[in-house]
Amino acid sequence: MFVLVNLKTYPCDAVSVAQAAADVAADTDARIAVAPQAADLRPVAETGVETWAQHVSPHDHGSHTGSTLAATVADAGATGTLLNHSEHRLKLADVDGGLRAAEDTGLETIVCANNPRQIAAAATLGPDMVAVEPPELIGSGTPVSRADPDIVREAVAAADEVNPPVPVLCGAGISTGDDVEAAADLGAEGVLLASGVAKADDPESVLRDLVSSV
Amino acid sequence: MFVLVNLKTYPCDAVSVAQAAADVAADTDARIAVAPQAADLRPVAETGVETWAQHVSPHDHGSHTGSTLAATVADAGATGTLLNHSEHRLKLADVDGGLRAAEDTGLETIVCANNPRQIAAAATLGPDMVAVEPPELIGSGTPVSRADPDIVREAVAAADEVNPPVPVLCGAGISTGDDVEAAADLGAEGVLLASGVAKADDPESVLRDLVSSV
Amino acid sequence: MFVLVNLKTYPCDAVSVAQAAADVAADTDARIAVAPQAADLRPVAETGVETWAQHVSPHDHGSHTGSTLAATVADAGATGTLLNHSEHRLKLADVDGGLRAAEDTGLETIVCANNPRQIAAAATLGPDMVAVEPPELIGSGTPVSRADPDIVREAVAAADEVNPPVPVLCGAGISTGDDVEAAADLGAEGVLLASGVAKADDPESVLRDLVSSV
Amino acid sequence: MFVLVNLKTYPCDAVSVAQAAADVAADTDARIAVAPQAADLRPVAETGVETWAQHVSPHDHGSHTGSTLAATVADAGATGTLLNHSEHRLKLADVDGGLRAAEDTGLETIVCANNPRQIAAAATLGPDMVAVEPPELIGSGTPVSRADPDIVREAVAAADEVNPPVPVLCGAGISTGDDVEAAADLGAEGVLLASGVAKADDPESVLRDLVSSV
C-alpha cells in the first residue's frame, strides 16, 4: 500500500510532518510520501521523505508567469505529482498535457477523479496511478471504504479494463489503519490522506497506525 | 456521413445557413446539422434543420447565472450538443457532467478532443460520438484528412477499442466533398465544419459539394 | 427603482414570468426587466418585457465556439446584460472586454461585485450600473438591506466617488416591497431578484408587491 | 526606479540570475527584485536578493490542493507578489482576495493590467503598485515606452486619480537602460522585465546597463 499525505494549504509545519513520515517509512518499509505546497518542496525533500507535488502545469519552459513546471518541481526534489485533484480540477486537455510534462521529467503521476467513469477516462491517458475521491466525503471523517465501498470497487474494475491496468488509490475520510485495510480489501493499492495526518497533534503516531496493517 | 456545421460566433446569418442546410438535407438524404449560438437556437430549429448546441452546462436547474442548460437548449429545439470544443475546453469532470445532463434530456452528444489519447478518454465517458480536431489545423484551410491522416486513423482506432465502439468525426480544414470522402476513407463517420460553410458566399452550393460523395 | 428579475437556470416558465413582469410594468410604470437564459431571450423579448442577458462574452465575431456574443443577444431582443454575477465571475480583463462589447452593440450594463471595494473597481470600468450582492446572502431569504445595510451604503459611497457617479443596485434576499423600500432608503437605485419571483407560485402578485412602494 | 525581473517559467538558472541581481543591487543602490517560480523562492531568497512571488492564491489556509498561499511564499522568503499578470489573469474577486491575503502576511503587491482603464480598476483595490503591460508587446523586443508611450502616460494619469495615488510600473519589451529612462520620463516608477534578463548570456551586464541611468 502507498500512503500519500497531501498537506493541501493547511497551516501545518510541512517539514515536521515530512520528518515524521520519513521516520515511519524508515522503520516500517511502508511507502509513504508527502505532498506540500510548491514553495515547500525543497525543505520537505531535504528530510529524505518521498516528495510529491500537488499539481504541475501542462506547459513546457516559456512565458507562463505563475505556473509551476514539472521540471522545476523535479529539480526541487519531487519525484511525483498529483493532477486533477478535486480542489484543482483540470481541463481534459491539461490532464493530458500535465501527464506528458511529468513523464518528460521522470515524475510519477496520480490522476484524481470523482467517480468510476472519470477514473476510466483518466486511466486511458496513461498515468502511473489513479485516485478516486468522492468530493462529498473529503474531510468528512467518514472513510470512503465504509461510506461508499462500491465506488472503490467500481473504480478498481474500471482501471483494470485499461491495458495495462492502472493501480487505484482511494481517498476521502481515511484516518486509521483499519480504513487502510478496508481500502486494500476493496482492491485499492494505496490511499490519499490529508487532514487526518496534517491536522493531527501527533502525525507520527497517526502514520504508524495507518501503516500498521500494511 | 454526418456533416455538422458549427457557426461559432461568426457574423453569418444563422437562419439563412440553416435554411440552406435544411434544403440540401431534404434534397439529398444527407444528414446535416447546424450549431448556432444559444440565442439563435430557436430560429434555426424553426427552419426544420437538425439543430445542435455548441455547448451545455454540466449543471441541473438551480442558481447558475449565465449558464446554458441542456434542458433549455432541448426546449429551444436542439437535439444534440457539442462538448469540449477546442475553443471551449472543459474540465474532465464537466465533460462527464455535461454528458450526463445531455443524456438526461435526450440530447445526442459529440465530445471534441485534440489527439487520439484524449479521444480515448472522451470515448470512455460514453458520448454518442467523438470528434478529433487538431487545434493547429482549425481554420487553416488544410483538411486534417490530408495534413495529418494518421491522427484520424489513430483516433478511429482509439475509439474502436472502447466497448461499445464510438463513431469518430473529424474536423479542421474540411471544405470540399473530396475532404469529406478522404475523411470517410480514414474511418471517420462524419465531419465538423465551420468557416468553410459559415463564411461562404453561397453556403448551399458548398454544402451540396460537401455531401456529393456521401 | 429598477427591478431586475434574474431567472438564473431555475425550472420556471420564462415566458410566463416575463408576461407577468410586462403586465405589472405596464400597469404601474415601474421599470421591470427579466433576464432569462440565452436560449430563452427571444420568446421573453416577444412578450414586450424589458429583456436582459445574464452574461455576454468579451469576444467579437470570430472563432469562439460556445460563447454568447453581445451582438447576438441584442439581435435576440436583449437591451442590457449582467456581467460578473457571483455565479459567473469574470477575469478583470473580461469584465472590461464584456463592457466594451456591450457598449459597441448598445446594450446597457450592470457589473455585479461582492463588496464595496470591488464595486469601486467595477465602477471605474464604466458600466451603466453596478450591483452589490454579498454571495453569502444570495438565496438566503434575508434581504441584504436588513442583514448588512452597511455594505449597501458603502457600495453607494464607493460608486459615488467615481466620476460620473454610477448608480448602485443591490441584491441577495430581496423579496418584498418593504425590502425594495429599505434598499432605496440606503441609496440603491434598483434591486436584483431571482428566486423570490422565479420560484413564486404567483410571480405577478410578488412583482406587484415589490413595486408597490416605488 | 524599481526593476522587477520576472523569471516566468524560463529555462534559466534562477539562482545565478538572482545572484547577479543581488550583486548589481549591492553595487549600485538600485532596487532590483527577482520573481522565480514558487518552488525556487527559497534558493533565490537565500542569495539575499529581494524576492517576489509570481502569483499567490486568494485563499487562506484550508483545503486548497495545488494553490500557493501568501503565507507560504512569505515564509519561503518572498517580500512581495505579482497578481493578475497577463499570463495568469485573475477574476476581479480574486485580484481583491489575493491583495487581502498578501496584505495579511505583509507582502508588497503589484497588480498587472492591460490598459489604463483596467489600471484604474486595479488601483482602486489598494495594491502597493500597478503595472501596465500591453499583452501584444510582451516579449516583442520593442519597449512599450517607445511603441505605445501614451498607454504609459494614461496609466500613470489613471493611477494618479486614485486616492492615495498608486505608483505605476511598465513592462513589455524593456531591455536597456535607455528603455528604463524612457519609462521614467513617462512617469513610471519602475519596470517589469523578463526575457531581456532571464534569457541573456550575461544577466549581470544587462542589469548593470538597465540601472545605469537610475
UniProtKB/TrEMBL annotation, chains A, B, C, D:
Stored SUPFAM superfamilies: Triosephosphate isomerase (TIM)
Keywords assigned by UniProt, alphabetized: Cytoplasm, Gluconeogenesis, Glycolysis, Isomerase
EC main group: isomerase
Active site: 85 (electrophile), 133 (proton acceptor)
Gene from which this protein is expressed: tpiA
Known function: Involved in the gluconeogenesis. Catalyzes stereospecifically the conversion of dihydroxyacetone phosphate (DHAP) to D-glyceraldehyde-3-phosphate (G3P).
Coiled coil: none
Entry annotated with the keyword Membrane: no
Family from the record: Belongs to the triosephosphate isomerase family.
Binding partners and assembly: Homotetramer; dimer of dimers.
Binding site for substrate: 6-8, 138, 173, 194-195
Pathway membership: Carbohydrate biosynthesis; gluconeogenesis; Carbohydrate degradation; glycolysis; D-glyceraldehyde 3-phosphate from glycerone phosphate: step 1/1
Cellular location(s): Cytoplasm
Name the UniProt record assigns to this protein: Triosephosphate isomerase
Known catalytic reactions: D-glyceraldehyde 3-phosphate = dihydroxyacetone phosphate
Keyword DNA-binding included in the entry's annotation: no
